[in-house]
Amino acid sequence: MAIPIRKPSELDALAKANHLVAQTLQLVRENIQPGITPLELDKIAEDFILSHDARPSFKGLYDFPNSVCTSVNDVIIHGIPDNTPLKEGDIIGIDIGVELDGWYGDSAITVGVGTISHEDEKLIACAKETLYEAIEAIRPDMRFKELSEILEASIIKRGFVPLRGYCGHGIGRKPHEEPSILNYVEGKSNQGPKIKEGMVFCIEPMICQKEGESHVLEDHWAVVSVDGMRGSHYEHTVAIRDGKAVILSQ
Ligand code: MG
Ligand code: MG
Description:
alpha+beta, single chain
């Protein structure tokens, strides 16, 4: 299936949805502190999104039960919010999606609760720096597989490994569209679709410490690494405009 090329007016609509995601992430970030529960953070985000005449797009998506993915410590992505209060030294991934006027936005951050260890700071920095390094490197006519190569190299050079089996994706009229954007190289990088002006997609490095092999917990959602160690995740929705990738989710 062809990857959609969006008109400027459509890119503006996608920017609005993604701006709301960024505002919601900021609000949740301000509320993260020891003692608050992931379910309380989920409620804060959901109320804020609904008050802007938008819809939390993860709720009900593939039957996900909540509005926000809250991934604590060893959970890397897709954590279901629960009643366990956050503690000093925890790390939590917050992944938020919205639908506004039929257009979708998606972005994620990982943040520390209170003071965190130097090791966890490096783990989080790997996801964040990899994301921005990849966005900077994007040029039209580059293949998506070359982007995957850049993502993987950026993760490895920081001493970590990409989580396998999950990926970034196109976004627009649906929360997940073509293509899949892996954080590692599979197959030859001189094959597959090219990045073109007007495309919109999500880049989301998911970071493991030792083993990239993933495992899904008994709740059928939370994804961890088989190494049992903490992971991190960052994500932006970007649009290709004027020869470069512009971050919409800010
Ligand atoms: Mg996301
Ligand atoms: Mg995503």
